[in-house]
Request: fold
Amino acid sequence: MTSSRRLAAANIGFAVAAFGVAAAMAMMQAVSRANLELPWRSPQMYYLSVTAHGVLMALVFTTFFIMGLGVAFTTHALERPLRWPRLAWASFWVALGGTLAALWAIFWGKATVLYTFYPPMQAHPAFYIGLTLLVVGSWIWCAVIIGTYRAWRAQHREAPAPLAVFGMLATIIVWLIATVGVAAEMLVQLIPWSLGWTKTVDPLLARMLFWYFGHPLVYFWLLPAYVVWYTVLPRVSGGKLFSDPLGRMVFALFIVLSTPVGFHHQFMDPGISSGWKLVHTFNTLGILFPSFVTAFTIVASLEIAGRSRGATGLFNWLGKLPWGDPLVSSVLLSMLLFAVGGFGGAINASYGMNSMVHNTAWIQGHFHLTVGSAVALTFMGTAYWLVPKLVKRELELTLLAKVQPYLWFLGMLLFSISNHITGLMGMPRRIYDPSYLGSPVAQTWTALTGVSALGGLFLFMSSAFFLLVMLGTVLAGRPTSDTAVRFAEPLEGAPTRRILFDRLGLWIVAAIVLVLIAYAYPLAGHLRMQTFGSPGFRPF
Amino acid sequence: MHIDLYERFWMWSAAMICAALFGAIVYGLVGEHTRPPSHIETIDPTAVWSDPRFAQRGVTTNPDGSVTVTAIAMMFAFQPGEIRVPAGRPVTFRLTSPDVVHGFEIAGTNANTMVIPGYVAQFTTTFAPGEYLIVCHEYCGLGHHAMMGKLIAEEGL
Reply:
């Protein structure tokens, strides 16, 4: 177990380091969008840092944190070591090597293409190859977790998998289906093209493959957060999980519905028919359902916690929750922000209405509530609870850890609300300078971009607190021998037999069928059409 | 499998909310013809300037009275940069790019499309009288934030 503990710590440690670098760049971007002068402020620095922030937060921080979480949860919930420990370490080193190659390309100014890397904007081959290795590393991690689960399964023929492991397996299945798209984009299109082996690429095909991957990517981030909500939060807040089988239903539905939704990122693209966009819209609205169910189950679990702490009234169980515990407050605040983000997501997904918000500041306002809060804030809260067990040291600087989630909440409200509004007023996202030569429309954004920058300042302080707590814990925390990771018990007791939702094979087949329905015909139609490739451009 | 009565009620309500949202979209599609720009037409991005479809850029009034705007989005400008259209009449935009992916957004309206090299983006909308800011909303290089244009919708044009 020592090896897997150290591996989990290595993954989460690198994730936290990536988070720290990305948070520092974010502060600078929010200030630049408010058109405030900074030392070294230049378009080169701004767009380079947007690229670095996106790659480090969305791809590096999340993937490494999830790999660490998966190792810790699987080994503890199944009470056995990893099946292939050396392979597990190989997954870390491959992903790390790839990440460093991509970061070299970004920080040396050779890959200012943003984390969506749409061709025909062309980055250095190290950027594409590095990110591909990050994904390959995560695939090795998937194999290790699946192998460990199967070794457990061989000795427990009839038992349902613990919910924490079931949720991790759902995450892995979503990831394996999703990464087929980006692997195809990298290996068939971008890597040969950036090496000069092919002259042109089809930018629309690349976008279709990217968004085939890009939306389930958000469920790859979200599902591990849900695992924490279902299996850790009820226990730490002093209660029980309200419903174990519905948790399994939620994870099964995410396996089925995560991927056939990608066109909702391409509503405004030419070259894709409005009928297929409507099919993806239908699936997208379906995927709201499991999150609605999650809201009920988690809130009901919290009510159990509040009542077991002595609450008797209709709502005073809310006040009885341990709001001073950094894991509990992180998750509760992240859920509040996610509720707002979820409704915004339904608006984004609403087909023709998307034209009011597509690629405006609304979008960055939206996804900082989802990945930037529901996921990132949950992960930070999880780190306060898990890292002390991984490094065998007590949490240090606990006052900062208590304040940090509230500071994040405040900063995110300021940042997100202001960006939603300026987005509706027409301000595009990702712009170095919002003044547009003094255009009257652009001037109406000014006050709100200032609010957004203030939110960025609070978020930066919150990130700094988080980093200080992590550093303090690892370097100066008091030694402890408490390494036990315990999960919440269901209200009705642990499940004893497998139910329909446990049949992963069935859900994988259903997912593949839905993916084929949603993508096979439009992709085949696209490949049959005569298209013209684009040569590469490096306007940075 | 036991499911709490309240949770059953919640799940049915959630399912109905999802269905109602989709219903609203279908209503908008059937009743108002609200759909995203989804025109399918290809073009050689290396020969945009000599392509007859984009040789004449600007505003043309068609024999049936409708208006077409033909424009090119390029690093880091729209060609033409200033567009005058009649207010209150349907205007069809046709756009393409000779270099990287751009966006075309008229701030404060529902005029919004991606402009992807190799493809012709096309959509139709109507404007209230006024002067509007056109921006590129997809990062296209170091001059992205300077890529802008102007649309003037005039009455009685």
Remarks:
- Chain B touches chain A through 69 residues (CB under 8 Å).
- The mean pLDDT of chain B is 94.
